Amino acid sequence: MTLLPCATAIAYPNIALIKYWGKRDEALILPMTGSLSLTLDVHATTTTVSPDARLSADAVEFNGTLIDDAAARKVAVFLDLVRQRVGSRVFARVRTRNDGPTAAGLASSASGFAALAAAAAHAYALELTPRELSRLARRGSGSASRSVFGGFAIWHAGQDDASSFAEPVQAASLDVAMVMAVIQAGQKAISSRVAMRRTVETSPFYPGWLHQNPLDLEAMQQALAAGDFTRMGELTEANALRMHATMLGAMPPVRYLAPDSLRILDEVAALRQRGVPAYATMDAGPNVKVLCQRHDALAVADALRALLGDVGRVVVAHAGPGVRVCE
Ligand code: 2P0
C-alpha cells in the first residue's frame, strides 16, 4: 500500500436543534435517540495527518503544542481504528488547529473528529462513502457524525454500527443564523461523556427524555420540510431545556447553565416580545446559541452585546459546509 505523505481536512462545528444526550453503547458510541443539527461556518478545525514509518507512537500537536494527555490518547485510539481497517502499523504525526474555543460546549469535538476522520481516512488510503465517513467520525465523538455534512443533518440512532450514521436533511430554507453568546471560553467543568452517563444512570427524568426526543425529532423534520421557522425555533428551545431538565435530575446533578445563561434566555424572550423571532439553545456548557432568521442576526447580536457588555463575546454564524479534504 502506498501511503500519502499527508492529508489535511477542514470541518466545522454543528449545533444540535434536537439534542443527543445519552449512549446505548459507549464503545461504539451508539446514541439512545436520534438528533438533528445545523453545521456552522465559524470556528473551523483544520487537521493534518502524516503517517511516518520512523515514529514509535502517534505524535499529536494541538494549536502548535505537542500534547500527551487524554485528548492525545483519544486521537491515537481513533487512528488505531483506521489502521486496523487498512492493516497498517504506521504511526502518524497529527497537527490540529481550532479556530474556536475547545471543550467549552461549542462543539469542538464535533469539528475535531470530523476533520480527523476525513484526514486519517485520506492519509491511510481508506476509501469511504460519506455515510461510512460519518460512522467513522461517530467513533471519535457522537456529534462528529453530523459535522461530516453541511447545513442541516440528522443522526439516526440506528441499531448497530452500520445503521447509526448522519445524513443531510433537505430544508425548505437555509436562511437561518446562529448567534453565539460566548460567556465562557474555558474548558467545561464536567465532560459531556461523563455527564451523559450520569444522567442515563441516575436521572428519574431520563425515561421522559427517551419518550419525548423522538417526537421532537419528527416534529422538527416536519418543520424543516415546511420551512416553518417559528415551529423550528419553538422546538429548538424546548428540546434544549428538556435536555437540561433531564441532567438537572441526575445525582449528583449536572448543571451547565450559569446566571449569564439565564439572563440571555430572558433577553431572547424579550426579543420575541419585540417581534424578533429568536430561540435559544444550550449544550454542555453555559454558552447560549440563538437561532434566528438571517435578516435578524445583527439585531439579535446587538441585543446580546448590549446585555453582556464585557462579560462575553458574540459571534454570528450561518449554515456552513461539510468536511472536506484539502490536499
Ligand atoms: C449534541 N452534545 O447533540 C449534544 C447536546 C452536547 C449537548 O453531542 O461522548 O462530544 O464524544 O459522543 O458528541 C456533546 O457530546 O459526546 C454533544 P461523545 P459529544 O450536540
UniProtKB/TrEMBL annotation:
Enzyme superclass (EC): lyase
Signal sequence extent: none
Taxonomic superkingdom: Bacteria
InterPro entries in alphabetical order: GHMP_kinase_C_sf, Mev_decarb, Mev_diP_decarb, MVD-like_N, Mvd1_C, Ribosomal_Su5_D2-typ_SF, Ribsml_uS5_D2-typ_fold_subgr
Pfam family, one: MVD-like_N
Keyword field contains Lipid biosynthesis: yes
Domain Mvd1 C-terminal intervals: 179-308
GO molecular function, one term: ATP binding
Domain called Diphosphomevalonate decarboxylase-like N-terminal: residue spans: 11-166
Record GO cellular component, one term: cytosol
SUPFAM superfamilies in alphabetical order: GHMP Kinase, C-terminal domain, Ribosomal protein S5 domain 2-like
Keywords per UniProt: ATP-binding, Lipid biosynthesis, Lipid metabolism, Lyase, Nucleotide-binding
Known EC number: 4.1.1.33
GO BP annotation list: isopentenyl diphosphate biosynthetic process, mevalonate pathway
Entry similarity comment: Belongs to the diphosphomevalonate decarboxylase family.
Name of the protein this chain belongs to: diphosphomevalonate decarboxylase
